[in-house]
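dumping this here before i forget
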Amino acid sequence: MIRTVLIDDHELVRTGFRMILAAQADITVVGEAADGENGLALIRREKPDVALVDVHMPGLSGVELTERVQRAKLPTRIIILSMVSDSPFPRRLLEAGAGGYLTKGCAAEELLRAIRVVADGRRYLAQHVAEQLALSALDGHGSGSPFETLTARELEVAMMLAQGREMREIAQVMNLSAKTVATYKYRLFDKLHIDNTVALAHLAGQHGLIDRPLTAP
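structure:
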């Protein structure tokens, strides 16, 4: 039996996943959480085989949750679910240790296939994401996204800034000093050739890295 947990801040999404998984004889849901902090606690407590994790959550994001699971050497394999298919983001999550990556528009059959593959110790990527990564590797120029130049940490800071989060909150979420977060901010601004968070949010929205760009007040 494949023991799974659902970590997503949208109750309707969790309900849909739970209904799909409940019909499977070889998969069971052993817990749910609506944010990353509670999701990490759930993983530590239940040690499920697979966790389905939303990348955009209040508090601890899917990226940081994945990294913490890896650092703690927990046995749970992470499948990230996101609205984003742009290649820099899946690549960074794979680098962080994710076992699978799916977009939320995937079919139920693909979700089930991904869970079984990842539970078996292999990696699973949505087909169009895998093709995008393969093509970017072949042409040697990445995806063409400016976010390709960012490290995993810089990308995480960029996403939270683009969502309108304060520096203090980002430092707390990432368990870093404000000075370190500021360093990441200035590095990513320099790499992206921008000088403010509104420009960052619009750029992130254009390249599909956030669901909704920040608007100027």
